[in-house]
Amino acid sequence: MMSMMVDGSGEVRAVCAGVGPRRGVRRRLSGALLALSVWATACGLELPDDDDIDGAVDDVATDLGLGGGGSLDVTAVLSGLFPDLSADEIADLSVSLSLDAALALEAELEAIREEAAEFSADLFQTSEERVQEREMDLEPSDGFPETLTPLGRACFYDEAEQSATISLSGVFSGKTPIQLQAENVSVLVDGALQSGELSCLSQGESVDIVLLIDITGSMGNVIASVRDSVVAFTEAVSESGLQGTLSVVTFQDTVGVDVMFQEPAPARDYERSPFFAPVDMSDADRVDALQDFVRRLEANRGADAPENLAGAIDFARNSVIGGSESDPLLIDGVTGPEGTRPFPALESDKQVFIALTDITFHSDGTSSTSLLPEFRPRAAGVIAKSLYRTGTVVHVVDPSWVDRETEPESAASDEVDADYWAMKTGGLGEDVVLGYSLLDLELVAVAERTGLLDIVLDAVLETSCTFEFSAELSAASEVEIQLEVGEESYSELLPVTVF
């Protein structure tokens, strides 16, 4: 056992785990090895020679951020703290951080990473089991519709403008995406055929795609898969021919605190929630920069189960992080919590949000002590109205087993399923087939580097359309959507959301 503990830097590292402050680390390592050598000699065990031991101590000291002779080095500190970053990235960070700042950052992140590990569920292992169950439960369709079907659909009526919009998110027949044309779509109101205009993303409409990523501690075991899937998705979308922008908004119990994990925290030590402003999806360099941003994301902190998805949606849609309908807390870059910046206005023809989370969200009247007052989100219904007005669709990627209440008005304030946002806006994510959806987080967790989002959501986007028409509607109106493509047909009465 003794030789295993000291014959290489990896084993010496185990000996020095929990050593504590850096100063004196080399002395403590050498002292520990001396004590071990006395014990080994008494036991008749063979030790490596002194040169091997000194080399192992040097290796561990370097890993811990100690240069030659025990001196501290910013680059080494950051390399140990962020092992996934390249040498060039570490060099860039080293320029902007002093040694004291790097050590403070290390102390902070090590503490919150340890805290995050305590909150993190064993999602990856659970996901493997759930995916195996899913394959058996959903044979042979794998959750896709057997015939022509829009996967997400909703009807909205703007009472002031007397205009109606039917949103269709992803039209499939089996696993085959279907591109709709005007002649494929009919809409009837109380039995009367309506004239209107069909517009689809594949036909030239522009779209702002915002990825809303939960980076709290419970995402720790799945965050690497989420990063890979998001990168693969952004790659697929940027090559798809769609027009518009890509952006990323992260959330914990804060939103809009635009500080990366590789930077010192704001003075008040808010949880970080960095974002990446919209970039043109045809700009390869900017998309690369967005992907680099995603690769740097960590999952940590978040001291309770529900998280601030509602606030993230409000921030991305309205640059608002709290307040009320009459008095929203608008982030303007001048006032507002320390570290926050406004999110740029979304100006494409359509907006699509994609939320990735593993838990419920803070909603109406939440009393959670982990939410600071300035980050307490507005009522879900108020935020939803802003989505209706702007035609924003929200797709939700969350675990299939997180089936909670989906109405904030009747549910416990901290127990509202993220599926609420998909159901309210006509997006994908509602657990409709045996408790599964096509976007369950466990599928992302086991998809390795190929991801899930690029397999499903790019096809959903390419087949998403809206049908707009003028009418006088009420919540009691019977609005029927009919699709005919080849020999297949589909029809459904859609509930009307009046705003």
What can you tell me about this protein's structure?
- There is one protein chain.
- This protein is α+β, with helices and mostly antiparallel strands and 499 residues long.
- Strands 1, 2, 3, 6, 14 and 17 form a six-stranded mixed sheet that branches.
- α2 packs across α4 (50-63), α3 packs antiparallel against α4 and α5 (74-81) runs parallel beside α7 (99-119).
- The radius of gyration is 26 Å and the shape is globular.
- 34% of the residues lie in helices and 20% in strands.
- Mean pLDDT is 84; it is low at 1-32 and 66-70.
- The chain folds into two domains: 2-119, no CATH class; 200-467, Rossmann fold, CATH 3.40.50.
Compact overview of the structure:
With 499 residues, the protein is an alpha+beta fold. The protein is 34% helix and 20% strand. Helix 11 (309-318) runs parallel beside helix 12 (380-390).
Properties at a glance:
single chain; Rossmann fold; 2 domains; 5-stranded mixed β-sheet; 15 helices; 17 strands; 34% helix; disordered N terminus
